[in-house]
Amino acid sequence: VLSHIDSVLRSPRAPPLIYRRSKGPAQNYVKENGQECGFEHLPLTVEMWADQLMALKDLHRSLRKLSLELVPWHTADPPGDTESTRVEDLQFMVDAILEEMENKEKSSQEPSLPTLSGIVSHFQKLFDVNSLNGVYPRMNEVYMKLGEMTNAMRNLQELLELGSSAPPTVVVDTVGKLCDIVNENVTEQVQQLLGTQDIHSIINKLEEHECFFPPFQALIQDLLCLLEISNLDDILPTVQNLK
Q1: If phi over 0 gives left and psi between -120 and 50 gives alpha, with beta otherwise, what is residue 21?
Q2: How many angstroms separate the CA atoms of 53 and 221, rounded?
Q3: Which of 66, 119, 156, 157 is the most exposed place for a label (fewest CB within 10 A)?
Q4: Where are the beta strands (DSSP E) in the chain?
């Protein structure tokens, strides 16, 4: 019997774990020719394998539960009590789960048809597009307007020395302050031009202008017609020639 066991253990297909050459003289197990065998550790190894086979069945049940949740269409009928659990079956289940996870990851990166339809509908509501044919033209229009607004905002930020990170509200407030300053300067210049700081005096001067200017304009028009000239600069030389 020991010769048959030894031939199996020394086979090229046998795992290295099950054969260990004894360091001391053979005491319990001796070959037919009297040489030592070194099989003292085999009972412990066989017990360990038995435990692993039982754990393999538990692992098989756990993988089946996971497969029923993730890939139920890849899961075969559960094996019977007498059917042995094979590592190949477990490997097949793991490969099926991994393949399904990879496919889900790839498909999740690509938007579905309902998602794309929802995006188009949302765009139509935001930009008041009645038909699908008008989506692309409105997209181009929005893109062009956005580019113009971005360039204008960038130019204003540079002119006002606000920096590229300044928000639009700061740009608008700065422009409003500049407009107030310009309006104040214009008012002061008008007051200086009219020679008065009193608003009532300005009104009086405007009223005087309205009273004086129409008759003066009529007189000048009559002179131009009478003297048969068209320019104001020619009035004085023509009158002098009449002397």
Answers
A1: beta
A2: 123
A3: 119
A4: none
Give the residue from 185, 216, 214, 190 showing the smallest Cα distance to 203. 190
The tokens for 172 are 């608008």
- In angstroms, the CA 233 to CA 149 distance is 51
Q: Return the bridge partners of 133, or none.
A: none
Cβ(38)–Cβ(21) below 8 Å: yes
80: exposed, middle or buried (Cβ count in 10 Å: 0-12, 13-18, 19+)? exposed
Rg (CA), the chain: 52
Task: Using alpha carbons only, give the angle 47, 50, 51 rounded to the nearest 5 degrees.
Answer: 90
Tell me, what amino acid is at 153? M
